[in-house]
Design goal:
The structure is a homodimer of 357-residue chains.
Chain A: H1 9-16, H2 20-26, H3 35-48, H4 54-61, E1 66-70, H5 78-92, E2 96-100, H6 109-116, E3 122-126, H7 132-141, E4 145-148, E5 158-162, H8 164-177, E6 183-187, H9 193-208, E7 215-218, H10 223-235, E8 242-245, H11 248-260, E9 271-276, E10 289-292, H12 295-311, E11 319-322, E12 326-327, E13 339-342, E14 345-348
Parallel strand pairs in A: 1-2, 1-3, 3-4, 4-5, 5-11, 6-7, 6-8, 8-9, 9-10
Antiparallel strand pairs in A: 10-12, 13-14
The first copy, chain A, binds a DNA duplex (16 and 16 nucleotides) through helix 2 and helix 4.
GO molecular function (chains A, B): DNA binding
Domain HTH lacI-type (chains A, B): 7-61
Pfam family, one (chains A, B): Peripla_BP_3
DNA sequence: CTGAAAGCGCTTACAG
DNA sequence: CTGAAAGCGCTTACAG
């Protein structure tokens, strides 16, 4: 049994009694073709089960209408949600998604070469970065690159992120306002921009307001690593009474360890705050207070920006920051004031004397 | 700023002082080319940042080395895990993954047309099916189709699944052995083969052994739907004291509702059993007893089978069923006997007089 | 509105 | 081992 050949435009042309160019036009929206011709072609195509070959089309148009997407950390619920929204958004704009999954904590470089061979129209890297060599290569080849939930040290790569810095600051203020003084911070991947920004927001606010730096552990944005870090943190004689976890995924790990291994009650014995506001963190069992990174707005911004970059290669580098809220639930002691209802949620909006905050 | 052109084989040939064919050979493993020529080409390619264009290659070879992958229900942790394993497996065999996400509970048909335009070498559909019209179209075009965690009513489409039927039967036996008599079943998508098979295994065993059928609700494999179903089930005067949930994802929803809305203790007031053995279900808070669908073996079988189908179009239809175990944890009352340790886990291996079971 | 023809960037017999 | 040439299946000026 040999592999069957797909019908080609030439086959259809022969059957419809028109030229091959006419067949092509019949499948090109806006092409100049008589309605009757189009109908004849459509009928012939139907009979033969013809569909234009996207590979051949891409070769001639030099636009693949494929976008390379990198994603890692899919155990963190945030990313499956992002992937679904991204798939929908790109599909709606007529793009396909070539997905690859770099190893967690590493550059996307190795697999990227394979993806670039496909002459993707753009690259979206979620929770990964690329080496600056690769960034240069993409730049030289004119391939737009967009980082999602990361920024690059090379400032010329555009990005879409949440409010990592403001979130970190607000969480510090929130925990202090709740009366906590023995704070802990659980870092994600240490050289990821999100972890660094959240930490520097958190520690920055503490320092500026005369508080000592938090105890610190590293959870690498992974469940098991975070659980191990929690064990170290909670076993200390001076264990923290509040922990800011670099994301919700790690916060759930910490909650599990705190309750089931240390017998702690949350938030009575330990306050927990996360980042992302997704997935299990919202379930009653965790009811996590968390700074939100709203998936749909972030993905909308990503899709819009990436399309703009494709359409106009001269689009300047942009770093879009999508607004979030400190969503207040039950995992952290509440401050005496500042919690307001917003869209059926409780969020924290501290009243301040100063303008900046 | 106009879009830069990628260097082509012809550019490289010119620089290296060889023919364009030589350049092609230099990038074709196993092609007959002098080592010195290859080196000259490699150097020229490096200078120009040349990478063979996969689109052009696919057009001539008529093999895209792209596999179309459909996945839905990414909120269910099982699928992100599957996606990661699949990505790794396909990558290792030199395939790229064109991902699309059909709407939950629907056929993959609409987006499939777009994917087929890319002349994918095969199609893997996870948690979806395709219409029989589409199945025929793929068959006619010689495109291998593989269903993952589903079977098709059209028996000619190959599949890889877990032991849905045996799992359902075993869970019935397990719950009855634990002394439960008021059973409930929470269905997933009713016309999905997994849900039907699990249910018929469960109900089949009950019937064969003289037990009444379980109370029944539908959760559509979605968290919120499952929570709503749990509310209906648990509000009944004759509420079940054990529920077999069509998968772990729904089981966690039921656990949340049972505990936080009905104040039930698990397993004292209610036993819960799931299916999949993944994700949050394993966390101490849920500690779900669940029939496993081991991701890696299932994905290994999928990758092996799909490659075989690509290599040899005459590969006959196959329905691979990957062995699972009833993993015993704390969410369901334990039967007096039959639990054995296996690979650091407790699994249920009932002792039987009869041979079949 | 339509067709003939060039060209997209490769691979692969074929002849040497 | 190497090069010239055909061909993969389209799109798109160009001329009519």
């Amino acid at each position: 049994m040999t592999r069957k050949r797909h019908a080609t435009a030439t086959d259809v042309a022969r059957l419809a009694g028109v030229s091959q160019s006419a067949v092509s036009r019949a499948f090109t929206p806006g092409a100049s073709i008589a309605e009757e011709t189009r109908a004849r072609v459509a009928e012939a195509a139907r009979q033969l089960g013809y569909r234009p070959n996207a590979i051949a089309r891409s070769l001639t148009t030099r636009r693949s209408r494929i976008i390379g997407v990198a994603a890692s950390y899919l155990q963190n619920h945030f990313y499956p949600d992002v992937l679904e929204a991204l798939s929908r958004g790109l599909q709606a704009r007529g793009y396909q998604m070539l997905l690859f999954m770099p190893d967690a904590g590493r550059h996307a470089d190795p697999q990227l070469q394979e993806v670039l061979a496909w002459r993707v129209d753009a690259l979206i890297l979620a929770s990964t970065t690329l080496s600056s060599a690769l960034a240069d290569q993409c730049q030289a080849a004119g391939i737009p690159v967009l980082l999602f939930n990361r920024t690059s040290r090379a400032p010329s790569v555009s990005s879409v992120t949440g409010e990592n810095l403001r979130g970190g600051r607000l969480i510090a203020e929130f925990l202090v306002a709740s009366g906590h003084r023995r704070l802990g911070f659980l870092a994600g991947i240490e050289n990821s921009s999100t972890s660094r920004d959240r930490e520097s927001g958190f520690c920055g606010w503490l320092q500026e307001n005369g508080h000592p730096p938090p105890l610190r552990e590293v959870g690498l944005y992974q469940f098991e690593e975070a659980a191990a870090a929690a064990r170290r943190l909670l076993a200390r004689p001076d264990r923290p009474d509040a922990i800011f976890c670099g994301n919700d995924h790690m916060a759930t790990a910490v909650a599990e360890v705190a309750r089931h291994e240390f017998g702690l009650r949350i938030p009575r014995d330990l306050s927990l705050v996360g980042f992302d506001d997704t997935g299990p963190a919202r379930w009653p069992s965790f009811s996590l207070t968390s700074f939100s990174q709203p998936v749909q707005p972030m993905v909308d911004a990503t899709v819009a920006l990436v399309c703009e970059m494709i359409e106009d290669p001269a689009t300047p580098t942009r770093h879009e920051v999508v607004r979030g809220e400190l969503v207040v639930r039950g995992s952290a002691r509440m401050p005496p004031e500042g919690c307001v209802s917003l869209a059926e949620q409780l969020v924290w909006r501290p009243v301040r004397n100063d303008i900046t905050g």
